[in-house]
Amino acid sequence: xxxxxxxxxxxxxxxxxxxxxxxxxxxxxxxxxxxxxxxxxxxxxxxxxxxxxxxxxxxxxxxxxxxxxxxxxxxxxxxxxxxxxxxxxxxxxxxxxxxxxxxxxxxxxxxxxxxxxxxxxxxxxxxxxxxxxxxxxxxxxxxxxxxxxxxxxxxxxxxxxxxxxxxxxxxxxxxxxxxxxxxxxxxxxxxxxxxxxxxxxxxxxxxxxxxxxxxxxxxxxxxxxxxxxxxxxxxxxxxxxxxxxxxxxxxxxxxxxxxxxxxxxxxxxxxxxxxxxxxxxxxxxxxxxxxxxxxxxxxxxxxxxxxxxxxxxxxxxxxxxxxxxxxxxxxxxxxxxxxxxxxxxxxxxxxxxxxxxxxxxxxxxx
Length: 366
Fold this sequence. Notes:
The protein is an alpha/beta fold.
């Protein structure tokens, strides 16, 4: 399990440049005019995790397999996208397929890169995108409401259960509130997921700045950080141009040296991943042995059998127990056998909730 993050924003805010940098490819053509990207580009990237490297060294693993996430470079949206402007409906359909929205806003001044509105105002840009997503969801729900009312009058139980929720969401959207910020009951939450609403998806604002502002941001990014906080969303400052330069340095030591010279401790990719994991409530567990050390992504709160199922469905079906070593204990002891001898390996059953960084050995029988 990983997650798919759609890079969304107005034309010419740096989406394709960021995609190229994050995926270290030139799969997305970057150019200074709108709608360079028509069909979405998809790139898988390995999630950097120092813990995996350290347990692999202790386990003397022959291979290291990090977990992955996918980025989707979605074409630039414009005002009127929900009505088909700029091939908007085509692009909005791509957004429905991702797990989270990485909303890139332009926070840099550059007369050589045109802005579709002729000015740099990230808050206004964000509002334009949000409005188009709201309008698209309004249209979607309004189309659903009539048939639901008819089915409910005919005694359909599912329609009767869904209709109050659809009405509740329509009222919120008409008031300018995204579906993802509408309080839901435990029964309503799974129903909303089935509606495929654009504004119900988690959003991470990514402020694209110039290289000189990469370390400390600027006035634009501070306004976006305040907006994100008020909306309960994440916000990351990144320089797409700088990330592109870093991606060209193949040697990790060279990358780190370059970042340090600019006052940065890590790449933008690392910050985006960390914020994305928090946004979606994801954690990582690890497995290690002579053949390979591997990282696995699961939802926070998942129990041991579900985690075992991420490795292979047979492990979940025949789950007996999980032998668990906390990451810190694994490192401190010096490996699996030492942790076992020190009493740091424990057996957990089907109700065990896996913790971030757990090193697991699954016992099963099919």
